Amino acid sequence: MELLPLVCLCLLSCSGAGALSKPSVKILDEKGDKVLLQCEVQGTFPKPTVVWQTLTGEIFPSMKTEVTKEDGSYSIILETTVTRGSFCYCFAKLEGTREMSVSGIFAFSNFDIVAKRNYLGGSQIALIVVGVTFPVAVVLILLIYIYIKRRNGGSTPVSTVAL
What we know:
alpha+beta, about 30% helix, single chain
């Protein structure tokens, strides 16, 4: 009888059981200042515990949870609604083990992305380009000056004029 648990453990480890896939997170929808998030963990055994959390560990209530079991492994889809601008993460842990996996997401809308891309005007972009290229040009001129000075043995070239 002592051999049976050992055989079961071997079968579980050989079949890849006990592995936890990384949660896949995405934004499904947005309405006003609310964003609907989805977390999906696929093909794990034993059944994982999956929750949405804040950085401080506060757990968001799930709006929808879907659990499926196929060929002995579990897949879980968990949805929650958060306030736009929140950073939260999907935390998955295998029950009865120490194995866990986390994926984070910053909940903002597609409008925010467009607004951020169009935020800089032409004059602002020109100032950034000048601000970056001017110091590079100064350093380049300085390096050329040092190179010429060293090539001439530390002396400044003097032109001779025939009298």
